Amino acid sequence: MTPDIVIKVENLNKKFCRNLKRSMFYGFSDIMKNMLGIRYDSGKLRRDEFWVLEDVSFELKKGEIREIMRN
């Protein structure tokens, strides 16, 4: 990373769940699997989940302003 880059994001992914109870169950389940050392594919969508961000990358340099482009 060059000295003028202050923020660098690579391959950012974020998913949400439409159902709060199901989301809490997934979170608890994922924490338990992690504690037990069980591997799971976090890139797969489960029931009621959807991608909000998928494979987003960007750099922000010192003094630079980025505008968000919306469709």
Notes on the protein architecture:
The structure is a single chain. The chain is of the alpha+beta class and 71 residues long. The chain has one domain. Helix content is 24%, strand content 37%. It is built from one helix and two strands. It has one helix at residues 20-36; strands at 5-17, 49-61. Strands 1-2 form a two-stranded antiparallel ribbon. It is elongated. The two termini are 30 Å apart. 0% of the residues are buried. The mean pLDDT is 90.
* Spatial ordering of strands, largest sheet: 1-2
Distance between the termini: 30 Å
C-alpha geometry: elongated
Secondary structure: number of strands: 2
The low-confidence runs, each spanning 5 or more residues with pLDDT under 50, are none
Q: H/E series, N to C?
A: EHE
- What's the alpha carbon Rg, rounded to whole Å? 17 Å
Count of DSSP helices? 1
How would a crystallographer describe the biggest sheet? 2 strands, antiparallel
Tally of distinct domains: 1
Which percent range fits the helix content?
A: 10-25%
Features:
71 residues, two-stranded antiparallel ribbon, single chain, alpha+beta
